[in-house]
Fold this sequence. Notes:
Elements: E1 4-5, E2 22-26, E3 29-32, E4 46-47, H1 49-52, H2 62-78
Parallel strand pairs: 1-4
Antiparallel strand pairs: 2-3
Amino acid sequence: MKKHLAANKGTNGKAFYSICASRSIGNGKVRRNSRDSYQSIPQSHILPIKELKELPTDEVCSHCLDMGLITRNRQRKAKGLEPVDHLFE
């Protein structure tokens, strides 16, 4: 099974959501989206970006890579930085 990028911090006992199974609601918060196929991802397969970066990209969900890149470039733009071409650059 592929590994997924965490969309939230999972603090205070809250479960991690994968970025491909969530939607942003603003203020840095996320909620689950309506994609049923991604709602049963085991917590052990959802990793923060620092841990995901160490894995080969063929072991990572392609949806998470694409959506993570969009999120990362949005954050970089807000800081006045140039966009990157890959999530792990």
